[in-house]
Specification:
By secondary structure, the chain is α+β, with helices and mostly antiparallel strands. It has one domain. About 35% of the residues lie in helices and about 25% in strands. The strands form 2 sheets. Strands 1-2-5-6 form a 4-stranded mixed β-sheet. It has a two-stranded antiparallel ribbon with strand order 3-4. It starts with 9 loop residues before the first helix and ends with a strand.
Amino acid sequence: MKTRITGLPKSLHSQQGVSLVVALIMLLVLTLIGVSSMNTAIVELKMAGSMQQQGIALNRADELLRVGEDNVTAITTNPDAFDFASPDDGYYVGADAIDVYDLDWDAQGLTSIPGNNAEDSYVIEYLGPKVIDGETVKKSTDGRIIGGAVHTFRITTRSTAGKNSLRLVQSIFVTPDPP
C-alpha cells in the first residue's frame, strides 16, 4: 500500500527516478566526449612525433648531401684521375643506371658523418660532361673536354630516423673540372 504525502503537488508524486536517468545519460555523453578527445590527442601526438622523425631524417640527408658535394670537390681538384668503375663502392657512372630504390644501401661505404645512424649513406654518380648551350667545346691534347662544358654528378643520400622515417635526397652537382 502506498502512502501519500499530503501537501505536495500531484506531478511530484508521479516522478520516479527520471532525474537519475537524465543524469546518467548526460554522464554517458560527457564520457564519450572525453574518450573521443583523448583518442584525438593521442593521434595528434603520434603525428607530431612522426613529423619530428621525418625532420631529423631530412636534416641528416641534407648533411650527407653536403659531405657528398665536398667529396666530389675533393675528387675533381685531385690531379690524379678517379675511377668510378669499381662496383659497390658508392661511386657509379651514369651508364650504370642505378635505381636508388633497389640499391643495396647497406653495401655502400660512403657514411662518413660521426654520430649519424649507421644506415645513413650516400652514393655519387658521374653523369659525364654536358655541353653548355651556345658555348664552343674545346678539347685538350689528351682528348678531354676543357671548355664550353661542365661535368655533372648526381649525389643521392639516404637517411633514416625512428621506426618508419626514411628520406632520399638528390642533388645535381656541377664542376668545371673532370674527375
